[in-house]
Amino acid sequence: MTLTIILTSYDRPPFVVRAVESMLAQTNPNWRLIIQDDGSGMGTVGKLRRYAHADHRITLHEHVVTNRREVTRYAVLINEALAWVESEFVGYMCDNVEYKPEMVDSVLAYFAANPDAGAGYIYHERDWYATSGKRLGRASDIDHWDYTPPVVRDIHEPMGMLDHSQVFHRLPIAARWDEDMAAVKCGDGLFFQKLVLERGAIRPIRPGKVLSVEHLFS
């Protein structure tokens, strides 16, 4: 069993280094990392190239989404990478997120113990949300879950909200991320709705255990 993580990156070198290092620190080595970098400067790209060169599990794709004003960039990058995933399980990572060392082990153990489970989520560290006044799963005051009323009952997150770096699912799936710019503020929720309808309820992978941290950035 192998877990592939799709990491979307754009010019946050201090954060993306922590993201990649958190994958290298995993206690379970059965992972792959696909880095989708959208035209970062050499301060970021140089670091990512060194990681990809040093570890065969890391693949770096350098390109630029040319119609940036017309599409949701991270969705374009994720959809492209989904076509390359060869493992049975996949997750999505932002370049300001890092995982705890036992994340891969926990995710793979969850799916092994629950062969009928199509998706699951891990708990996020919420400290900076409390200090910043922001809520997890929100963008520009638009709640992802305003867009998913038919399936909220099948998403077992106590706060009713999730970030896409918390969710993992089996492949293959027909669902794809919405690339239309109109979906930029609710893309996670729209994808989760598709995921639930196709793969079933999203349940906690390791209840009560924080396995990811998202860093505040300006």
How do the helices and strands line up, and which of them pair or pack?
Layout: E1 3-9, H1 13-24, E2 31-38, H2 42-54, E3 58-63, H3 73-82, E4 89-93, E5 97-99, H4 103-113, E6 119-121, E7 123-125, H5 127-132, E8 138-139, E9 142-143, E10 167-170, H6 187-199, E11 202-204, E12 210-214
Parallel strand pairs: 1-2, 1-4, 2-3, 6-11, 7-12
Antiparallel strand pairs: 4-10, 5-12, 6-10, 8-9
Helix pairs in contact: 1-2
What characteristics describe this protein?
seven-stranded mixed β-sheet; three-stranded mixed β-sheet; alpha/beta; 218 residues
Task: Explain this structure.
The protein is of the alpha/beta class. α1 (13-24) links the parallel β1 and β2. The model is unreliable at 127-154 and 156-160 (pLDDT under 50). It contains six helices and twelve strands. It has helices spanning 13-24, 42-54, 73-82, 103-113, 127-132, 187-199, and strands spanning 3-9, 31-38, 58-63, 89-93, 97-99, 119-121, 123-125, 138-139, 142-143, 167-170, 202-204, 210-214. α1 (13-24) runs parallel beside α2. The strands form three sheets. It has a seven-stranded mixed β-sheet with strand order 3-2-1-4-10-6-11, sandwiched between helices. It has a three-stranded mixed β-sheet with strand order 5-12-7. The protein has a two-stranded antiparallel sheet with strand order 8-9.
